[in-house]
Amino acid sequence: MANHPRTELVLDALNMAIHNRRPAAGLVHHSDRGSQYTSVEFGGRPKEVGLVPSMGSVADAYDNALAESFISTLKRELLHRHSWPSRESVRAGIFEYIECFYNPRRRHSSLGQMSPVEYEQARMGGAAVA
Q1: What secondary structure does DSSP assign to 34-45, as a single string?
Q2: How far is CA 56 from CA 6, 45, 48, 65, 99, in A?
Q3: Which of 1, 36, 73, 127 is the most buried (most CB within 10 A)?
């Protein structure tokens, strides 16, 4: 979590995801048309590692509906329920929510009442998911 929307932020996040998850070639990396994603610096990084870049349509609120839904859930279930004394406390709270609750334990009707981790494991035939 940073206090700026610069390209280095999304590039660092992409590189961290690549390092931690080792995505298979052909995985789609979808983004909006923000300047960070259309920058020369970000440029061909997805293609370098075998990802297929995809950008949303201009002024299409439904194109990024999954991300917007997650942000709404994060705000409703975590951010608006607490007072946050510092940026660091928010960062730690978001990390804990995602890594300790949302991904491993939160059930989703769209995933057959499985958590995202359980769903991914089932889709990968029981292979370990980092």
Answers
A1: -HHHHSTTTTTH
A2: 19, 18, 20, 11, 27
A3: 36
Identity of the amino acid at 65: A
Q: Are 1 and 96 in contact (CB under 8 A)?
A: no
pLDDT digits (tens, 9 = 90+) for 75-115: 999 999 999 999 999 999 999 999 999 999 999 999 999 99
Q: Tens of pLDDT along 25-68? A: 999 999 988 899 999 999 899 999 999 999 888 877 788 888 88
Judged by DSSP in three states, 108 sits in strand
Mean pLDDT estimate for the chain: 91
Q: Please give the Cα distance from 26 to 52 (Å, whole number).
A: 6
Q: Which domains does the chain have, with CATH numbers?
A: 1-56 (3.30.420.10), 60-130 (no CATH)
Angle in degrees, CA 68, 1, 92, rounded to 5? 100
